[in-house]
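Following up on my earlier thread - several people asked me to post the actual chain instead of describing it. Fair enough. Here it is, all 276 residues.
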Amino acid sequence: MFQFSDSKSIGQGKFRKDGREGMFSNRKTSHEFTLIELLVVVSIIAILAGILLPVLNKARNKGKETVELNAVKQLMLGYQYYSDESAGYLLPGYTSWTTPLVDDRGHSMVMPIVSMRWPWRLYPQLKSLHGTILTGAMSEFMKSYPLTDTFYNYYISVFPSFAYNYYNIGGQYPDPKNNAMNDPDVAVKTNEIKQPSRLITFVSAFSGTQPYGYMYCIDPIKGGWETLPFDPNNAYGYVHARWSKRAVTGEADGHAEMVAFDTLRKETNRWKNRKN
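Reply from S.P.:
Thanks for posting it. Predicted structure:
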């Protein structure tokens, strides 16, 4: 049988005869943080958060910009397909006639006015409604919208993510203020476009309410916003410079750009079908 000659001393954490402390000592060896040390740590975390959060937000917004740029590129591909299949005629922004159409669920349009607007007439040329006509906030909003609602198709026809510059390209039929068939400055066929790389066709849109989107835009001169200061809550001709005072544009030749608000309002010829 084993015997411990000094078990009492060891159990109570006392010093052994050789002067060393017992293995079960009660002496506290852990370090406790003082209030000052805790405050220093909290301050460091706050400083790091202040540095990192803007960086993360900038990266997140950059990703959203890229998504919108890609969406308008896909939209322009469908736009060009429409023209190719229509003997060179460009997509009218608004028509006085209706067209039998079905939506992305295979349902026929209930309200005739829906097929008069451009979004659902362009949809057959696109692989998807989302990532083209709808992107970002408007796409997320419509994904959560009740699919059985009568106004589903109507809302999409009025609030696409991109506004169509159809007062200057494509036109609307008929409109006393903008009869595309009689206005030489409105391109209705691809061969009538004078500067394809500098004619805005689609642009980031804003109706003045959430979520973002509207079916057409009004150029700075006609809309009276060529001298107005920037305000993110203002719907300047339904154009929205939501990306650090820049808007996504789809040009008539099919390429996409990020264009500054000041450029959009000052370079008015980019909205018009003119040579200079």
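Strands lie at 162-164, 200-204, 246-251, 256-260. That should answer part of your original question.
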